[in-house]
Amino acid sequence: MFPEGLKYTKNHSWVKVEGNKGKVGLTNFAQEQLSDIVTVELPAVGKAVTSMNPFGTIESVKATMDLITPVSGEVTEVNQDLNAAPEKVNQDPYGEGWMIVVTMNNPAELNSLLSAADYKTFTETEAAG
Amino acid sequence: MATDEAIFISCQQGMSPPTLRLYGWQPPAVSLGYFQKLESAVDMEECRRRGIDVVRRLTGGRAVLHHHELTYAVIAPEHVPPFSPRVLDTYMTIGSCLLNALNGFGLNAHWVALRDKRRGGTALPRHETACCFSAPSWYEIMVGGKKICGSAQKRGSGVFLQHGSILIDHDPDVLAALLNSRKGKEAFAWEIDASTTSLNRHVKATVDVHDLGKTVLSSFRDTLGVTFNHGSLNDGESNLKDLLLREKYQTADWNCKGSTATIQAA
Predict the structure, then answer these.
(1) Contacts of A11 in chain B (CB under 8 A)
(2) What is the ipTM of this complex?
C-alpha cells in the first residue's frame, strides 16, 4: 500500500501536501512492522518541528519508535482522536490515522523526499533484511 | 538506562559498534515504560521505604523490578546481520539467544504461543496491569507457561535498542507492594505469581547474576556465530551517559513525565 501523490521518508513517514500545509502520518509498512499500536504521543499545536527530526513517539506492543517529520514548520493541527483510538494508525494509516498538519516554512524540502515508487523499492530492500 | 541510551545514540552516529551489554542494578530499581503514568503504576511511598529507585525507560512496556535479575541490552544498526529492520525478526533473533541460555540451565523455555493476529494468531487483550511480568506479549519467553523474561525495543535512525530483564528470583508480594493495581495488593500478588517465574524456581543449584551473565554471553556467541570483544564505554559514550544522567534520567521532568506525582532523582 503505497498511495501515489504522497511523499515518503526512509523513516517511514508520509506527507500529503495541500498548498503550504503538509499532513503527516506513518506508513502502512511501518505500522505492519510495529504490530498493534497502543499509544501515540504527538506535539501540541504551535510547536515548531524540523524536517527529519522527531515530532513524537509511537508505541506498539513490541516497540517504540520516534515519529519523524518529513517537513519543517509549525504544527497547526493534531489528530486528537489517536489519544483514545491509537489503533486507527493500524487500521487506516493514510486516512484516519494521520497525525499532524504542518504549515511548512521550507517547501523545497519536499524535493528530497521519496516518491511512492522509490519508497516501495526501499521497503522491499528492508523486507529482504 | 542512561548508558543504554548513550550507546544507542552513539550507534546512530556511527561511533559505536553493535553492542551486547549485561548488567545488574545497585540499589534495586523499578523501571517504568516510556508511556506509563508514574502515579498509577508505582507505589512511591513503598519504593522510598524499601530504598528502591524509580527510573523511566526509553522503551515502552510496563514496570520491571530490577532486583535478583540480569538486565541485557542489545544495540545495533538494523541492517547489520544477523539483525533485521523487521521488529519481530529482531525479537526472534535475540530471543533465540536468551532461550538457549535458559535451556543451558536445564529449563524447558519456549516462546509464548500467541502470534500476530494478522498472521492468523490470537489478539492479545489490552494490558490493564502496571507490571511487565503480569501478562505475556508476543514472542516472549516463558517456562512452564509463565513469563521469565520481559523485553522491549526502541527504534530510531536505523538503529535498534532491545533491552530486557531475565528473572533469577522474584517475590510476587514484594512486586505487588511496589506497584499499583486496581485489584488490590493481595489479588495483584496472586496474579503476578500465576504469570511469572524465575530461574531459581527451576534449578537445583542457586544461580547468581555472574553465572547467568556468562551463560547469556556464551549463548549469544554460539547462537549468532559471532565473537565479542570485552570492553567498556568509549569516551564519547561515557560523556553522553554523564550528560543523559544529568539532564534526563536524574530529573523529575523525565521520570515523572505526564504525572502529577514527584520522585527523587533515580
Answers:
(1) 157
(2) 0.83
